[in-house]
């Protein structure tokens, strides 16, 4: 496949010219960087305008599937062209044009596998796909029309649905307080105002991972067999967890094979439930900012802060790029972390971390009084609409923790007998934090001695602070192995010359 077709040079140039953009950021994932110089050269030839600046962006601060608006702002870009795999998360400040790429696929093999599923399934079949295979879906539809005519001779009740791509052009969200709004535009210029969700909205309309579709009245996702075209990637994991009540099969275009067994992902779902139960016992929670570009992330951070405060717990907000065990180990006072990120980077395997990392949806289950997990799952944080203020009446259920073996109460019984004023609530938060840190002081895994009332005091009481300065004018003495001095004459070489 030639470069101009795969990278959609003509359509990209048309987008730039129609928008009158003068500084364009071209965002490439690591695996496509090798083509960046050729793409710039081809775009330059197509634009034929030396006044338009083209800037290549590579290493992203967070996930490469999201539009890197922070990196684009460093070069003063007024739009972003995003190449490769994307989650199509709503942008907040810049318009974006998406080039999904054209991954290789055998249409005939795909149609054969799809026809086999249709002939054996008693349920309607819903075809979902990775965005990199969207270029071939029309060919799959045309080939399936011929197959359906022959299949219906032996089975007349066949039902087949294909989903559509939400958009290829995205305008920034104008109202952050209402993150469900979006400004998507398709290749034909039509707008698509669809909430990102994994559940039904506006009747039977569904959207997830850049795909959108409608189901007829009376038909639910649980009633459909999902036929996924693509590799086993974060987008597929999002589908598996969100629609865990549906039967799912996957056609792998690279292997030309059909996979039906996804026990690993079912184990992942069980582990997420375990982490929810573990989070209920937490007293100090760290909120990890996993995106600075997805519209609504500030709204979600505030919602998490309010949720944690109402649960009588303490929270810290941390911005550190991509989390790893070493980074989070600097905050041992946090019992659990909430990762506010796009749906396709939200799941972190935190087995190697000192504290578990959960999603905003899991945090809502853990810290909301009376909430129970029904089996439904949600990775897209923008679907979590702020719940109404919780009633503090005695009729509310306490949160049951299987790990603690009982009900977890957020406040003392005395606080339930009378209304809690703002000042008293602040005092209760301080006391809860102090009790939590005292518990950690007695834990042999922590070196801290004494009582700390905040994260800063907790840090000051550590026995190790890194490279400590012994005095204002002194520096730590390194443990020297090998030679010292300059390469032109090491210290031992000078001493040898003097001896000679």
UniProtKB/TrEMBL annotation:
This protein's UniProt keywords: Iron, Iron-sulfur, Metal-binding
Coiled coil: none
Species the sequence originates in: Stephania cephalantha
Family of this protein: Belongs to the DPH1/DPH2 family. DPH2 subfamily.
Leader peptide range in chain numbering: none
Annotated metabolic or biological route of this protein: Protein modification; peptidyl-diphthamide biosynthesis
The UniProt record lists the keyword Metal-binding: yes
GO biological process: protein histidyl modification to diphthamide
An example molecular function term from Gene Ontology annotations: metal ion binding
One Pfam family, short name: Diphthamide_syn
Official protein name in the record: 2-(3-amino-3-carboxypropyl)histidine synthase subunit 2
Cofactor dependency: [4Fe-4S] cluster
């Amino acid at each position: 496949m030639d470069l101009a077709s795969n990278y959609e040079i003509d359509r990209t140039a048309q987008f730039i010219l129609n928008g009158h953009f003068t500084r364009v950021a071209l965002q490439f994932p690591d695996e496509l960087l090798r083509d960046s110089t050729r793409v710039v050269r081809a775009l330059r030839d197509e634009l034929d305008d030396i006044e338009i600046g083209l800037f290549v962006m590579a290493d992203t601060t967070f996930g490469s599937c999201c539009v890197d608006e922070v990196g684009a702002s460093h070069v003063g870009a007024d739009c972003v062209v995003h190449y490769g795999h994307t989650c199509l998360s709503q942008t907040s400040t810049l318009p974006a044009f998406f080039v999904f790429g054209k991954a290789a696929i055998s249409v005939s093999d795909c149609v054969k596998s799809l026809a086999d599923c249709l002939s054996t399934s008693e349920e309607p079949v819903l075809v979902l796909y990775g965005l990199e295979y969207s270029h071939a879906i029309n060919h799959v539809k045309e080939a399936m029309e011929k197959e359906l005519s022959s299949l219906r001779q032996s089975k007349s009740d066949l039902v087949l649905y294909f989903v559509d791509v939400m958009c290829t052009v995205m305008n920034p969200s104008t109202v952050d307080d209402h993150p469900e709004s979006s400004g998507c535009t398709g290749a034909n210029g039509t707008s698509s105002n669809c909430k990102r969700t994994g559940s039904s909205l506006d009747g039977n309309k569904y959207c997830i991972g850049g795909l959108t579709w409608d189901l007829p009245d009376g038909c639910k996702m649980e009633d459909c067999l999902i036929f996924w075209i693509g590799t086993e990637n974060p987008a597929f994991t999002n589908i598996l967890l969100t629609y865990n009540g549906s039967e799912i099969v996957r056609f792998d275009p690279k292997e030309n094979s059909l996979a039906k067994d996804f026990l690993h992902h079912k184990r992942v779902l069980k582990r997420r439930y375990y982490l929810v139960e573990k989070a209920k016992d937490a007293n100090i929670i760290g909120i990890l900012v996993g995106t600075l570009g997805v519209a609504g992330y500030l709204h979600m951070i505030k919602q998490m802060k309010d949720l944690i405060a109402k649960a009588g717990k303490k929270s810290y907000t941390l911005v550190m790029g991509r989390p790893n065990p070493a980074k989070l180990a600097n905050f041992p006072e946090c019992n659990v972390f909430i990762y506010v990120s796009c749906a396709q980077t939200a799941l972190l395997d935190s087995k190697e971390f000192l504290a578990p990392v959960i999603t905003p949806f899991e945090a809502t289950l853990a810290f909301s009084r009376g909430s129970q997990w029904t089996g439904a799952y949600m990775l897209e944080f923008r679907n979590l609409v702020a719940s109404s203020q919780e009633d503090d009446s005695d009729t509310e259920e306490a949160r049951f923790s299987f790990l603690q073996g009982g009900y977890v109460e957020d406040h003392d019984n005395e606080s339930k007998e009378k209304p809690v004023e703002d000042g008293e609530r602040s005092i209760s938060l301080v006391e809860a934090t102090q009790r939590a840190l005292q518990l950690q002081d007695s834990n042999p895994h922590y070196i801290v001695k004494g009582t700390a009332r905040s994260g800063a005091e907790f840090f000051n009481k550590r026995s190790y602070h890194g490279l400590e300065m012994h005095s204002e004018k002194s520096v730590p003495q390194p443990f020297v192995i090998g030679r010292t001095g300059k390469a032109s004459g090491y210290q031992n070489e000078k001493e040898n010359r003097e001896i000679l």
